[in-house]
Amino acid sequence: MSDPAFERLRPYLEQPQGQTLWVADENLLTTRINPSPLLKAITNRYDLAENLKRQDWSALYSDYDFSVHTDASFDRVIYRISKEKPVVHHLINQAFRALKPGGQLLLAGAKTEGIKTYFSKAKALFGEGDCSKTAGDIWFAQLTKTSTDMSALLDDQNYTRIRAVAADEQFEYFSKPGVFGWDKIDKGSAYLIEHLDQFLMTLIEPPRSALDLGCGYGYLSLNLSHLDIPVTATDNNAAAIKACEYNFNRYPIDAQAVADNCAEQIAKKFDLIVCNPPFHAGFSVDGDLTDRFLKAAHDHLESRGIACFVTNLHIPLERKAARWFKQAEVIAANGHFKLIRLSHGN
Ligand SMILES: C[S@@+](CC[C@H](N)C(=O)[O-])C[C@H]1O[C@@H](n2cnc3c(N)ncnc32)[C@H](O)[C@@H]1O
């Protein structure tokens, strides 16, 4: 599905003038643009980086760490704004550092996404710029770096710092901006853990290994540690993997975090899979993503294993799961979430 905000920026990538850096976010996962020696990309999504590398792009996968690029080395930075404010602020600050004097930052996004406020803050940092409406709700902003004053850098809530964000009787959870629901415990995931024993009771034998599919900062993985089995946690987001590794190092647990797209590169199968699947890719609701998570669970589940999913009540996950699993059963629900047990029916 094409994104009207990105379409406004596309011509600048198709006909780059000068050294250009494209900051690509998850909402651009399927975008195709021809590579050019003038173009580089940076993204925090593993699948997007892989997709671009397959198209011969010079694409860097990291938690938006610009330190590999020399300061003041780009003529242009192109960025379709992200969903979360600290991410956008961090990226505007990084663009300021990466641009040569007189270099340009091009932004696009919807008014409801805060593009006009981002523009005003960026203009105070950059010195010059204008912002105009292009179509519908979409705005396009052009900023020129005429200032060298770093005191107007935007508040990115200390983007790179991993910090304690929540705690319960068992664990203290560390996380950072850029991770899904980074500063709290997700209520759906907490609900899954409350009912974990109810899921486990349905296994013929205790599980020997577990997969946390779409692990975020690792909440579900940490809450499997009392089972004393190896846990593989996977996510496509670089910030999530960083936070997850940090959490795993704080406790004596056998868990590893793997950056991947829906566990594609993980060859192992597991007795237990836990998953709170995403249903948004960027700004759009992505039904296909739910299906890809179900397929990944199917492909990675041992014949006698179970996959434990939690979703919002309105998502027809058990119906979609029928395509992949012999058994798909809602084992509990409250006013907001439901817990679904999936198995191959052996
Ligand atoms: C609803 S969150 C759940 C996070 C975590 N399990 C928790 O309970 O807090 C879904 C996670 O799926 C991840 N995700 C989205 N697309 C993915 C993909 N293609 N492959 C792997 N993970 C993905 C997101 O980055 C996010 O961390």
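^ S-adenosylmethionine complex. The mean pLDDT is 95. Residues 47, 180-181, 186, 189, 214-216, 219-220, 235-237, 240, 261-262, 276, 278 surround S-adenosylmethionine (CB under 6 Å).
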